[in-house]
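dumping this here before i forget
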Amino acid sequence: MSLWPRLDALFLRRRAPLPADVAARVEAWRCLPAPDAHERLGAARWVVVDVESSGLDARRDRLISIGAVAVSAGRIALADSLEVVLRQARVSDARNILVHGIGGTAQREGMPAVEALSRFLAYAGQSRIVAYHAPFDERMIGRALRRHLGLVWKPRILDLAYLLPALFPALAPRCRSLDDWFARCGISVYGRHQALADAYATAQLLLLALGTAEARGAADCDALFRLQAAQRGLDRMQAAR
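structure:
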């Protein structure tokens, strides 16, 4: 049998047209301007994200849910939050469900991926994204957006795994994980490994970081990204020794 039909299916297959409401959200997102690098810390809107997935391999595992909480004007906006569960054709295994608590029925009855992901885009807009160990969240969401909406998602991401040690170097040797930072800062999580609960707790860490950065003279949002870059470089130097 010729390989051409298979190659056609693999390389030339067209994505199904998006529903009108989804297409409208995607187009509105495309038209948004990039955030101002010199926006004041207190005036910016930050979107703290956390994801749950079928495993920890960002190249192969599937995105199951996204939780997001906004921080603006120096406050966590509880009304400005989002949680979506993406419908799964194949339910993740029992051990995975024990971690995040999203059972088989909830996975099978979640939102269609194009709907869930377009809602996330509409919610996040072009706000700066915040996460702890951000590359995993970025890759999981980015892969899903490429697959289902054909989008390349390249937001500016602030990774608290670098920013917190930069701001609190005395605590860094004892805080190797997100749970360590929660414990050290007295932050309780009402549902650990639930995307929205983790995003809300991480938003509290962001507030602490923003307040400390402002007190130390950080004038704008770009100052935090410079701190992050400096800490990343320091970590690389130490790892190379």
